[in-house]
Amino acid sequence: MVAINLVRKSNEELRNLPQHLSSPTAIFTGATQGIGLATLRQLASNTVQPTCYIIGRSEAKTQEIIDELKGLNETKEGIDQILSLRYYSRLRFIQNLLFSPIQPLLSSSQNPRIISVLAAGMEAKIIEDDMDLKHNYGVMKCANHGTTMTSLAFEHLAKENPTPLLSFIAVPLSGCGERQLYHATSSRYPPKAPTQAQAGVPVSSDIAIADGSDGVKGSGCYLVGEASEIAPSGTGKVMRDYRERGLPEKVWKHAVEIIERVRG
Q: pTM value?
C-alpha cells in the first residue's frame, strides 16, 4: 500500500519536473463527474498550464468544468492564479508604493491617489478561515474573495496611512477613461484630512463630497460605481459586520503573510 501522504508528495513534485511532466497534455473521457473529474482537478491543481481535452456528452457541463479548472491552476509559489491577479499582486504593488523607498514620492505629491479597477459594489461573504481558498475553492468564491478582501484591505490602508493622504477608489471594470481621470483628480473623493492643495479639482455646489466606504464623508476609501456614484455595499450588512470585527486589518495581514512567504 502507498500511503496517501506519499501520493500527495509525488503529485506536488510534478511542478518541479521537466516540461513533459510539469505541463502535460492529457485526454479525459467521462470526466464531467466522478473519478474522471476528481483526477482532472488534481492534474490542473498540481501542474503548470496543462493542456486537457475533455470528451463528454454535455457541452454545458464540460464548459462549466473548464471554467472551474482555469482557476484551479496555481502559480509556482502555490497561489491560485485568479486570486494572485485579483488580490495578492494588487496588494503587493500597493505595499511597494506605501512602504518602499518610493513612498516619500507619494507623501510629497499634492494629489496622491491609488485607483483600483475591480468590482466595487459586488462585495459578498468570504470564508474567513480559508482566505486563500485552499480548502473551499470555487470560481465564484474566488471572485467574491478577490473583490471583498480588496475593499476591506483598502479601508485598512486608508485608515492607517494618513501621512501619504491616499484615496483608495475601487471602480468597476465598465468605467470609462474619462471617469477614471475624474476619480483620480476630483475633490469629490479626497484623501483623509487633505490640505487644500491635495483635495483636487473643486466640485460644483451641486456635487457633495463623497461618503467613504464606511459611510463617513471624505474618509479616504471609496467604492465607486460606473456612474461615479458611491456603491451602497460599503455600508451594507456584510461589510458593516466585517468592519466591526476587524476584518479590514485581518485581510491586509493575510496578504502580507502570503507576500512574505513568496518572497522567502
A: 0.73
